[in-house]
Write a structure and sequence with these properties.
Elements: E1 2-9, H1 13-24, E2 29-32, H2 40-44, E3 51-54, E4 62-63, H3 71-76, H4 79-88, E5 93-95, E6 100-103, H5 108-120, E7 124-126, E8 131-137, E9 140-145, E10 150-157, H6 172-179, E11 184-190, E12 194-195, H7 198-204, E13 211-218, E14 223-230, E15 234-236, H8 237-244, E16 253-256, H9 263-273, H10 279-283, H11 289-299, H12 311-322, E17 324-326, E18 330-331, E19 339-344, E20 362-364, E21 372-373, H13 378-393
Parallel strand pairs: 1-2, 1-10, 2-7, 10-20
Antiparallel strand pairs: 3-6, 4-21, 5-6, 8-9, 9-10, 11-19, 12-15, 12-18, 13-14, 13-16, 14-15, 16-17
Helix pairs in contact: 1-5, 1-13
Length: 394
């Protein structure tokens, strides 16, 4: 039986960060993963450029049943700490909209950096390793694998969520939590495109490829203003992905297709300058004509000259374009979801150590926990931060 101080299950962002920090403290560390290579999800993130963090990290950027849980870890290992690692390794990066940071070259540079740091502190990484059983014994945790048994006094679960199963995502971490009597917040797909009911899909799929600036609001009141993309399946783009994490089946969302425009004032101005122009043509300066036609047809609004519009017409136009309420059929699910909302109940975990409150030596980090970031590098920052904290404590 091979013995270690720490066994980490999951060779992703959180697991590797934890391994590095534990190794720096002189701990013998073994990282196990069922995938053939480490960091598979990291490599495909951000279109292969890895949106590794964000300039503006705050607890408000995270969803959790316990919204305060993430604060300690994010404060102890901030975006600036990870940026310092990147810069020390000579990895070139750039900022995109909303403070998002991406590699100039490939995400592999980040993975190579993490693996190099693991190598410096003699972390043992074993991929293509399958775990058959996990038991807690007086001497620590004993893992039965498809090769040899392993033992460690600390076991860290960094196995990720359920998103993108084709990349190897499984429910392993949640099963371990339940095995040891920890609560689990029902998981669901997050940061995922919406699908539409058949009648809406048939009407709007002709807009596939159209992208507009929009503000989308969930029934909870949470709102995001970013790009909205129409697809042949439904609604995507950053605004849709962001709001999907706050949406529950059966709920509606409200879409403002003209978030910067005072529609009433714009129509009044048009009536004064071009009274004989149709209102649809006038608004097509601010919104694609195809989208106006689709929305107004769906709402049953007829075209008129601007000088013919009544007050009711103006209210109807405003409602149609700035208060469009639609009830999605669902989402595309874990197949295309970027994250999993829900996971191991954070009330079961110490925010200071990432250790289970019930089982000494058992730690949970990263996406397996009920902490879900917004789109834009927040989930990677949670992986770095939670991994760092656990690595300081195991």
């Amino acid at each position: 039986m091979e013995k270690y101080d720490v066994i980490i299950i999951g060779a992703g962002a959180a697991g590797l960060m934890c391994a590095i920090e534990a190794g720096k403290r002189g701990k013998s560390v073994c990282v196990l993963d069922h995938a053939k290579k480490p960091g598979k999800k990291l490599l495909i993130s951000g279109g292969g450029k890895c949106n590794f963090t964000n300039y503006t990290i705050d607890a408000a950027n995270y969803l959790s049943q316990n919204p305060h849980f993430c604060k300690s870890a994010l404060a102890r290992f901030s975006q600036w700490d990870f940026i310092a690692m990147i810069e020390a390794s000579g990895i070139a990066y750039h900022e995109r909209e909303h403070g998002q940071l991406f590699c100039d070259n490939k995400a592999k540079e980040i993975l190579d950096m993490l693996l190099a740091e693991c190598n410096k502190v003699a972390v043992s990484i074993h991929c293509n390793r399958h775990i058959k059983e996990v038991k807690k014994e007086p001497a620590g945790f004993v893992l039965t694998t498809d090769t040899k048994p392993l033992q460690a006094s600390a076991l860290v679960i960094a196995s990720g969520g359920l998103s993108i199963p084709k990349m190897g995502a499984t429910s392993f971490g949640l099963q371990i939590a339940e095995q040891f009597g920890l609560g689990v917040i029902n998981p669901r797909a997050g940061l995922v495109p919406f699908t539409l009911h058949d009648h809406d899909k048939a009407h709007y799929e002709k807009l596939s490829g159209v992208s507009v600036d929009a503000r989308i609001t969930a029934e909870s009141g949470q709102a995001f203003r970013e790009a909205l993309l129409f697809t042949h399946r439904g609604l995507s783009g950053p605004a849709s992905l962001q709001i999907s994490s706050y949406w529950m089946p059966g709920q509606s969302i409200e879409i403002n297709l003209l978030p910067e425009l005072d529609v009433s004032e714009y129509l009044l101005q048009g009536s004064s300058e071009h009274p004989k122009q149709s209102w649809k043509k006038h608004l097509s300066k601010a919104l694609p004509r195809r989208l106006i036609e689709a929305r107004t047809q769906d709402a049953g609004l007829e075209d008129k000259n601007l000088n013919q519009l009544t007050d009711k017409d103006k209210i109807d136009i405003l409602e149609c374009l700035q208060h469009w309420r639609i009830k999605p059929n669902g989402t595309e699910g874990y197949r295309t979801a970027e994250v999993t909302v829900g996971g191991v109940d954070t009330n079961e975990i110490s925010s200071k150590t990432m250790q289970s409150n019930k089982v000494e030596g058992l730690y949970f980090i990263g996406e397996v926990l009920d902490v879900t970031g917004h789109l834009g590098g927040y989930n990677f920052q949670w992986a770095w931060a939670s991994g760092y904290v656990a690595g300081q404590m195991v």
